[in-house]
Amino acid sequence: MTDIIIDVDNVHKSYLMGKEAVPALRGVSITVQRGEMLCLMGPSGSGKTTLLNLLGGLDVPGRGHITIDSENIVAMKEEQIARLRLKKLGFIFQTFNLLANFTAFENVEAPMVLGGQYKRKERKARARLLLEQVGLGDRMDHYPSELSGGQQQRVAVARALANNPPIIIGDEITGDLDSQTGFEVMGLIRNLNQEQQKTVIFVTHDPRMADFADRTINLLDGVLHSEVVNNGNQ
After folding, report:
1. Are 219 and 47 in contact, with CB atoms under 8 Å apart?
2. For the domain bounded by 34-60+77-229, which CATH number is listed?
3. Which stretches of the chain are assigned E, i.e. beta strand?
4. CA atoms of 56 and 30, how far apart (whole Å)
5. Cα distance between residue 158 and residue 168, in whole Å
6. CB of 210 within 8 A of CB of 216?
7. What are the pLDDT digits (tens) for 116-156?
8. Which residues of 78-89 are buried (b: 16+ CB within 10 A; e: fewer)?
9. Is the separation of the CB atoms in 216 and 41 below 8 Å?
10. How many CB atoms lie within 10 A of CB 223?
11. pLDDT tens, 31-83?
12. How far, CA to CA in Å, does 92 sit from each of 172, 216, 232?
């Protein structure tokens, strides 16, 4: 029996450019297994970032259905989607998106304060543990401006895990990092995927980073163009 955690069924999405509707996705259907690490690739304008935004509940499709962990997010109100994002989705962005006036510790703790599932003492202990897991046990009290790009992205990884979501969504995770640091961060995410069975969906332009995934889906002009199972992933 398969355990599908994400089901994208015949999803269409268009954007208005002036008075003209420009299609970004044209009938995309994808299923993702629980614990899978999936890479989305394609040239600019292929629809990969649009699909990622739809999966994260950051946008809504024009047509089609999206189910996240057995919940139909297309039918949800904004408040329900916001709650689902807090509990079931962790986000990692290319530009880190850390709060500049918060320390690394406070950045990781913040989603737990919003989520409300951990008491204060549990939050503190969990934030420390997560930062230790990403190798920043000695940088907890540093602000983003005092951290390297790789360290900031590690804080972002820890923050994505704060509420223990089953799904991690990454948009060009290594885009602002040098190659060596990018490999280190992707290796960290791959370990989390394997050790904690986190489902990971990420967009990249770098085929070397795609090698970390179990499967790579290539989009072109808003449709699924090809699919590759990575038998020799890292």
Report:
1. yes
2. 3.40.50.300
3. 4-17, 20-33, 37-41, 63-68, 71-72, 89-93, 167-171, 199-203, 215-220, 223-229
4. 15
5. 11
6. yes
7. 999 999 999 999 999 999 999 999 999 999 999 999 999 99
8. eeebebbbbbbb
9. yes
10. 14
11. 999 999 999 999 999 999 999 999 999 999 999 999 999 999 999 999 999 99
12. 8, 18, 25
Report residue 137 as tokens. 């046990």
Torsion of CA 196, 200, 205, 211, to 10 degrees: 50
Q: What is the pTM of this model?
A: 0.93
Q: How many residues can be counted in the chain?
A: 234
Cross-strand partners of 215: 38, 229
Query: Can you give the residue ranges of every domain in the chain?
Result: 34-60+77-229
3-state secondary structure 12-38: EEEEEECCEEEEEEEEEEEEEECCCEE
Give Cα 89 distance to the centre of its chain. Answer: 7
What letters, b where the CB count within 10 A reaches 16 and e where it falls short, cover 130-164?
Answer: bbebbebeebbebbbeebebbbbbbbbbbbbbbbb
